[in-house]
Amino acid sequence: MTDPVLALADRRFLLLTTFRKTGEAVGTPVWVVRDGDALLVSTPRDSGKLKRLRNNPRVQLVPCRRFGKVKPNQQPVEGIAEILDDASAVMRVTELLRAKLPIEYPLILRLEGSLGTELEKRVALRITAAPS
Questions:
Q1: Tell me: the pLDDT tens digits for 34-49?
Q2: Alpha helices in the chain (DSSP H)
Q3: What is the distance of C-alpha 32 from the center of its chain?
Q4: N or C: which end of the chain has fewer CB within 10 A?
């Protein structure tokens, strides 16, 4: 049986939905890369999604366009996100994203002001399929 999270690895953009304490869903378009049995995401250390994930590691993933628009009738995939705050995890996801997106990823980092400081300003998220 195909892992539903890993089946999304080749998509350019996924809408990553995290959940507030109230249960309200908050979606953010992200780039993902496959790393073994998981997907990795790079995100700023001060992003709101980290606060939400610390309270609830449940996520949903669905293919989307650059700004988060989802095609009608797309079914989200349930996952669990783990925050990886160590430099080696951030370096790994950075290398993989630069290989997958050699033009776009450095450009976005430059716009964020974190080019060259990924290790200090970013964390990695490791996403696996939710247990059934």
A1: 999 999 999 988 899 9
A2: 48-55, 87-100, 104-112, 118-121
A3: 5
A4: N
